[in-house]
Write a structure and sequence with these properties.
By secondary structure, this protein is of the alpha/beta class. Helices cover about 35% and strands about 20% of the residues. The chain has an eight-stranded mixed β-sheet, sandwiched between helices.
């Protein structure tokens, strides 16, 4: 099968959708299929290079053997190159719907499958004309939702299939010494709620409960949050480590006792929490979004946007020792998100679309 995979952002960009798209593309190739990825992400992550405008048509291609198959990545394709690639394909798969990459389907008839990883709204929750156009177009696609909450939001029939994680990288190391308390992983933006974690650590400090936290990620609020940490006199407890990925991130997670993701946003899945549990961390998450659905009984919940509740849960969680039954339960939860298993479910959908 010739699969055209559309992923607005893709490797080497860092983020959940980028990782999921790369996992699926490689697993599709490993299963013997030909895959071409179209994306707006350039090959280089050099921050000194200017970011091209969306109106440009600069092409940049690279290939990856992807084990037994062939993966071709077409970066920022011209309209002609995109049209030719759609013609080449047997099925068009959008990992998040992209109007930029969907237009050739107006003239070329191909099965169209769309996986939905987020809400079809603006960042403030309102619905814009692009969102309405996307919703209208979904009637002509086979739809996949990464959680039941996304499925209920879409308003069209969809198949619920969770995201894969890199199970060959993110795994628990029983020999590792967990000498650190908390770890946060995510972009340093308001939606991710790191300020709630800083406030909770400060509240615990006032109770004479001293905990340490590692902050993994980059973003526009990096310097602002560092200043907040300093103002709260937490410099000795909070370490800002920048972005980490792959084996380096997995090794870091294995040194921590709990991962904390205090998101303001209604998270549609929670991939970072899943990776944390896979590396032996307890997962402290808000009672909102799809965290409970993704993590099952492994989710340790606090009240959404409540720093006092978060502080209380952290204090209790760090004093509890989890038994073997918990980790058996975690393994069962993780097994449904193994890369090969999730990719197989996607391939069945692509074949019958």
């Amino acid at each position: 099968m010739k699969i055209l995979l559309s992923s607005h952002f893709f490797h080497p960009s860092i983020g959940g959708i980028e990782q999921v798209s790369l996992i699926l593309a490689r697993e599709f190739c490993a299963a013997g299929h030909e895959v071409r990825v179209v994306t707006t992400t350039r090959r280089s992550r050099d921050p000194t290079r200017p970011r091209p405008s969306f109106s440009s048509s600069i092409e940049d291609e690279d290939e990856d053997d992807a084990r037994s198959g062939r993966l071709q990545v077409i970066r920022r394709p011209s309209p002609l190159r995109l049209w030719q690639t759609v013609r080449w394909s047997d099925v068009v798969f959008h990992n998040n719907i992209s109007l930029r990459f969907a237009w050739p389907l107006l003239t070329i008839r191909r099965p169209w499958v769309v996986a939905h990883h987020t809400w079809l709204t603006r960042t403030d929750g309102s619905t814009g004309w692009r969102d309405r156009l996307k919703r209208s177009a979904l009637r002509f696609a086979t739809n996949i939702s990464v959680s039941q909450q996304i499925a209920e939001h879409l308003g069209v029939p969809s198949i619920v299939t969770g995201n894969p994680y890199r199970d060959e990288i993110f795994r628990r190391d029983p020999e590792c010494i967990r000498d650190r308390d908390l770890v946060f992983v995510g972009r340093l933006v308001s939606d991710k709620g790191l300020d709630f974690l800083l406030e909770a650590v400060s509240l615990l400090q006032k109770r004479a409960v001293i905990v340490t936290a590692s902050v993994v990620g980059e973003g526009p609020l990096f310097s602002v949050l560092q200043r907040v940490s300093k103002d709260l006199r937490l410099e000795s407890q909070i370490k800002f480590l920048g972005a980490k990925t792959g084996h380096e991130l997995a090794a870091l997670l294995n040194r921590h006792r709990a991962i904390v993701l205090p998101s303001r946003w209604q998270e549609p899945f929670g991939l970072a929490a899943l990776e944390g549990i896979a590396c032996g961390c307890k997962a402290i998450v808000p009672d909102s979004g799809a965290f409970r659905e993704t993590l099952g009984a492994c989710a340790i919940l606090f009240e959404h946007e409540n720093a006092v509740s978060l502080a209380d849960v952290i204090e209790v969680t760090l004093t509890q020792k989890l038994d073997a039954d918990y980790w058996k339960q975690a393994e069962r939860q993780l097994s449904q998100y193994e890369a090969k298993r999730v990719a197989a479910r996607y391939l069945e959908i692509l074949k019958t679309a």
